[in-house]
């Protein structure tokens, strides 16, 4: 079974974290990642308040959206994201994720994303329970589980975060959403969780941006790992 067959059977979507890309040649990075088999560009935005770090700027997001041939998703690690939803929509993104804790009325923000014709998603931090976001599942298309604390690349994976996966898979029978994982997604994590039913994986320094930066080979390894777990 080749890579396309494996990805198709698992509905596997690999999402490079563009915060880790080489910004001295960003257009070439976009092209190389697309040729390597990337499915969605993952764009991290941080405001130094919701998380203690700063992430990608509006100009970076506009540039990637303008030059991308694949979907783009923005992960808003910011306070009060409702104020900025239209700004990111104007950049050309296809998917917007928010953290439910970042806003008092998160459902209003999620509805606004949908009204703009975009896919709305929520992100669950390691300390966020599935039970606390049950009502939000009525209006989201995607749920992302953080395998690390948000805000920094290269952190150690937190295995207990996976406890949410089983609960989300069970609830998926009553709601319509795709499940993703963000944080320390290497070959082993993608192979194991894709078998359970996780579809979307954000690839950072653990799975894609490391060593010789051979994106095609690194993505091929991940797909092969997922394929082995189908046997």
Q: What fraction strand?
A: 15-25%
Low-confidence spans: none
SSE topology string: HEHEHEHEHEEHEHEH
The CATH homologous superfamily is named: Aldolase class I
Strand order of the largest sheet: 1-8-7-6-5-4-3-2
How would you sum up the global shape?
globular
| Whole-number tally of structural domains | 1
Q: How much is the average pLDDT?
A: 94
* CA-CA gap between termini: 11 Å
Q: Give a quick account of the main beta sheet: strands, pairing sense, barrel closure.
A: 8 strands, parallel
In the CATH hierarchy, the architecture is: Alpha-Beta Barrel
The number of strands is 8
CATH topology call = TIM Barrel
Count of individual helical segments: 8
Structural class comes to alpha/beta
Q: Which class in CATH terms? A: Alpha Beta
User: Radius of gyration from the CA trace?
Assistant: 16 Å
Helix content percent band = 25-40%
